[in-house]
Design a protein that fits this description.
By secondary structure, this protein is α+β, with helices and mostly antiparallel strands. Helices cover about 25% and strands about 15% of the residues. The strands form 2 sheets. Strands 3-4-7-6-5 form a 5-stranded antiparallel sheet. The longest helix has 19 residues. The two termini are about 30 Å apart. About 30% of the residues are buried.
Length: about 260
């Protein structure tokens, strides 16, 4: 909602649930006209279609080792391809589709390198959770930022995802603009923060932030999730004043002791 409001403030028109039946382009003006299912039309210079992504593995010779020449490669926790019995092939990044983000591909590459080096030295390098050669964060702590205005950043589980997983969670929220440091970043700063905590284990399992510059704030939540830092210990992580990081103190105050 806040991102949509930000886009509208920039003059962007937003229609959700709209179905495009056909497109035309005027040969003389170049104007593109989508015809929508409700009978309305929209004129624009160009029309962008987001169709997702697929691995570009054709031409790599995967069929020579019994793999599909163009498709996803299934991997274990250390990103070793499970369908190659000899265990010499690894796949990091979009090709394994575990977490198709650039920074997660780099993370997987680090896990691959550690696994290869350990196994070359004669170690088993079993990819147990959080081992140096296991890309465990792919499943538990994937940070992501959408660089809109305002930015939207998230890591871990949303409240809905956590409840669907059967976790006993409680969520707290706080307006980021009420933090003293927000006024130093921008006049009239508007933003929102939501923290999701597992009440049984007393740890953070998810966080969502919306507002200018929140991409630089999300890493603190990532550290808390990966480290499974108890909430009572997080109380002792004192944020500098006046800084945007004081949002973590405000969220903990909302959660309570």
């Amino acid at each position: 909602m806040r991102v949509a409001d930000g886009l509208r403030g920039e003059g962007v028109g937003i229609r959700t649930g709209a179905e495009v039946e056909r497109l035309t382009r005027d040969g003389s003006t170049g104007v593109v006209t989508p015809y929508l299912a409700d009978g309305s039309t929209v004129e624009s210079e160009e029309f962008l279609v987001a169709t997702g992504r697929s691995p570009r593995t054709a031409g790599l010779g995967l069929e020579t080792v019994g793999l599909a020449p163009d498709g996803r490669l299934l991997v274990d926790g250390s990103c070793r391809v499970t369908e190659v019995a000899a265990g010499w092939l690894y796949a990091a990044g979009d090709i394994n589709q575990r977490s198709p983000l650039t920074h997660m591909g780099k993370y997987q590459a680090r896990a691959c390198a550690a696994a290869i080096a350990a196994r070359a030295a004669g170690r088993h390098a079993n990819p147990t959770p959080w081992a140096a050669w296991a890309a465990t964060a792919d499943h538990h702590a994937v940070p992501q930022v959408v660089f809109t205005r305002p930015e939207a950043a998230a890591v871990g589980l949303t409240e809905e995802q956590a409840r669907r997983a059967g976790l006993p969670v409680r969520a707290v929220e706080y307006p980021i603009g009420d933090v003293a440091g927000a006024s130093l970043l921008a006049d009239g700063y508007r933003g929102h923060a939501k923290l999701v905590a597992d009440e049984q284990r007393s740890v953070v399992v998810g966080c969502t932030l919306v507002g200018p510059g929140v991409g630089e704030l999300i890493h603190a939540a990532t550290v808390a999730i990966v480290g499974e830092v108890p909430l009572e210990r997080l109380w002792h992580a004192v944020p500098a004043f006046p800084a945007m990081s004081e949002i973590w103190l405000r969220l903990l105050e909302q959660y309570g002791p």
